[in-house]
Design goal:
Blueprint lengths: L23 H6 L3 H5 L8 E4 L5 H11 L5 E4 L38 E2 L11 E2 L18 H4 L4 H17 L11 H16 L40 H28 L16
Parallel strand pairs: 1-2
Antiparallel strand pairs: 3-4
Helix pairs in contact: 6-7
Amino acid sequence: MPLPVLNPGTSSVSFQNTSFSIDALGRFVCSTWDEATQNAGPPFTIVVIGAGMYGAYLAARLFRHRPNARILLLDAGRFLVSEHVQNLANIGLNVAAPIPPADDPGVARELVWGIPWRGNVDFPGLAYCTGGKSIYWGGWCPRLTDGDLAGWPAATAQYLRDHYIDVESDTGVEPATDFMFDTLGAVLRPACVAAASATANIESSLGDQGVQVDRQAVEVPADGAISHIEASDVFLRVPDGRADVIDVVGDRRREARAVGAERAKLGGRRPRSVPARRAWR
């Protein structure tokens, strides 16, 4: 059933409300042109055009590595969701079907998909939203082999070999499954075990003593495989979180030393309180 159009008025609100939602995420993530350009700040150092798969990543990297720079990230679309659509329920956020660009209806298809240029090949278009196609698509991009790079300029080929690891670390490819093993897993596992032991009616070990789920309540993915978990550029702070793990590990070691010293003062008894664990940024 059609809904009334949300028309801009003369009054101002902190968040725009529809019949179903409060636009808090979009308001927190995005700024209007006037807010970005008329806030008495210094001139922009860098302007990035497009908050899609590469633009958002580039802006985040620049922001972290040039903290004194003022960066403007411009995009033609609006905020849609904060993560990959495959991490959400099947609510109808679909990729538009390919069409001849000449048949462009002139309005967004599947909410955000538009045709940015004309050509003679059927094309679904681009996703005009924060994160762009990165919130819809996944991909596999292995390293180029030595044979692939044989015809490249030697300096370029060597640069790729030296810096593949940087991109793989940023995107979570390396270390593989670090949320289960490696550094991040070393931080998360003790925290989860401690939380489980302090919570009633939670089984903290493997076994069959937990709640049994009716097999009819378990939905098998349509493709017969396990569900995907995709990542998108909207979640810009993932690399910051991974880098910050090193600091968290250091804090946990300092905390352990502090608890040990306090326990020694109490003759080996556990202190009633321990230093507060630092929040993970």
